[in-house]
Amino acid sequence: MHPITILSDLHVGHPFSILRRPEQIAPLLPRDATVVFNGDSVEMRSRLDRDTGQARREQLRELCEARGSRAIFLTGNHDPLVSDLHHIDLCDGKVLVTHGDILFHECSPWSHEGPHIGEEHTRLLGTLAEHERKDLTIRLRIAKEATRITEKIYTAEQSFLSVLRNLVMELIPPWRPLRILGFWRQAPGLAAAIAREFRPEARFMIVGHLHHAGVWEVDGRTIINTGSFFPFPGRRMVEIRDGRIEVRKIRGYLGDFHPGRVVYSAPLER
Question: What is the pTM of this model?
Answer without folding.
Answer: 0.93
